[in-house]
Amino acid sequence: MKAATKKISPVQQRTIVSWAQWQQVQTQYRQALKAKFYRQLITLRTRKILNTPGQFTALPITTKADLVEHNMDFLAVSAAAVCEWVTTSGTTGKSVRIALDRRDLLRLAQNEAAALRLAGIKRGDGLLIAVGMDRLFVAGLAYWLGAQKLGAVCLRAGPSLVDMACTAALPLAPAGRWFIIGVPSLLSGAIGSSQNLPPRLGGLIGIGEALYRADLTPNAMCQLLHRRTGAPVMSTYASTETCSTFAQGTVCRGNHLNPRMAIVEILDDGGRDVPPGAPGRVVITPLGQSAMPLLRFDTGDIAALFTDPCPCGRPTARLGPVLGRAAQLLKLQGVSLFAAAVIELVRSIYAGMEFVILADADPLGADRVTVYVVCPAHRWASLQQRFDRAARGQLKCVPPIRYCDMQTIMQIRAMRPSRKSAVFVDTRD
Q1: Residues 205 and 245 in one domain
Q2: To the nearest whole percent, how much of the chain has pLDDT over 90?
Q3: Is residue 330 within 8 Å of 369, Cβ to Cβ?
Q4: CA 295, 113, 85 angle in degrees (round to 5)?
Q5: Is residue 77 part of a domain?
Q6: Looking at residue 106, which CATH number applies to its domain?
């Protein structure tokens, strides 16, 4: 029997979905052993038990702290083979450097082309990329590569996009539909009304922020963008370290895994699988990574994996919205919650207003959270009442609100500098 026709048992399918995917895992494993970090980490016993797919989870977990502390030890190719360096944003800690070689760039193009195709983009359509291409960001580069592979027309508008209609009304505009990809909160600021939208808008693709709740229903930001544009609003999930995308189509419930590009596990704090639909730590093994191959990488994100039938008909598992980061778990008034829940609530009440959430510790070391909002004075009382009522119902606790000016917001963000415009600043030790 040929290897390609072998079957994976139901037990093994919890992680490895096909024999072809297992062969990719073995290739990734062999590439990883070229890196000093994995040569020192993986024991002879671990190497032997990797003869069968069911033993995949015996591999150790790789953490962000490992990447920070031993960064160059993850390099599995010569320095001369590296053709691109990208970095993470450092939202929850130090920024991490990731090397890409030519094979990685090809993989990145294939990965994003598949994701954009799922969103409905095809040859002849236009894509406004409202994401930065500078400062070592990988996102803008990835979307551009994917769109080029699809044959779409690209407009690299950047995150400071103001007049989308003017940008899209260039000579030789595509005959197909326009799509926009960017950070939802930045897009909502740019899309004040349908008057400045490009014609034939086929959809919006949001990155970096949740657009759906834990039950996969649209959240306040998703509803706002749909209301202003009348177009489908889709989400996507990826991490710089793995360069692997989970994408959504117009009728999908959750972000589909591309099994040719990655393996995903959802684990509890003890490293055990959690049931489908239950939240846990997102652990990804990217397939085909060359310059810095990773095995069982803990992203630090908390989300659930859904395996029930999707309305789109695709059989692959889907990742739900990121509920928060493990490092951003808060304990307020006896209630455990993630910063993402507070962010979603603030956005739903103070729509379109600048805000920042500051997490610090009180004199006794307990978590403390304060929400700072730039809000017109005549709306203080009414919005405060709405926020308090919603917080009691959704969070089971009420973080204090402080109304302030933009200078105060900037001062708080400066406490933890980041290349992103942070809405959550954590100064806890």
Answers
A1: yes
A2: 57
A3: yes
A4: 50
A5: no
A6: 3.40.50.12780
Q: According to the model, what pLDDT value does residue 93 have?
A: 56
Do 315 and 373 lie in one domain? The reply is no
Helix axis angle for 220-229 and 339-349, nearest 10°, is 40
Q: Which of 326, 350, 379 is the last residue of a domain?
A: 326
| 225 domain residue, yes or no | yes
In this structure, the answer to whether residues 64 and 166 fall within a common structural domain is no
Secondary structure (DSSP) of 182-231: E-HHHHHHH-SSGGGSPSSEEEEEE-SS--B-TTS-B-HHHHHHHHHH-S
239 burial level (CB within 10 Å; 0-12, 13-18, 19+): buried
* Residue 419, domain extent: 327-426
pLDDT beyond 70 at 27: yes
Q: Can you give the length of the chain in residues?
A: 429
Band of the pLDDT at 9, cuts 50, 70, 90?
very low
Provide DSSP, 166-180: HHH--TT--SS-EEE
CATH number at residue 378: 3.30.300.30
Q: Which two tokens stand for residue 141?
A: 């580069």
Q: 239, 255 in Cβ contact below 8 A?
A: no
Q: Is 411 helix (H, G, I), strand (E, B) or coil?
A: helix
| Residues 287 and 343 placed together within one structural domain of the fold | no
Q: Which of 263, 298, 326 is the last residue of a domain?
A: 326
Q: What is the pTM of this model?
A: 0.84
Round to whole Å and give the CA distance between 189 and 184. Answer: 9
8 Å CB contact between 332 and 367? yes
- In eight-state DSSP terms, residue 336 is E
Question: Rounded to an integer, what distance in angstroms lies between the CA atom of residue 214 and that of residue 415?
Answer: 30
Mean pLDDT, the chain, integer: 87
Which residues are bridge partners to 416 per DSSP? Answer: none
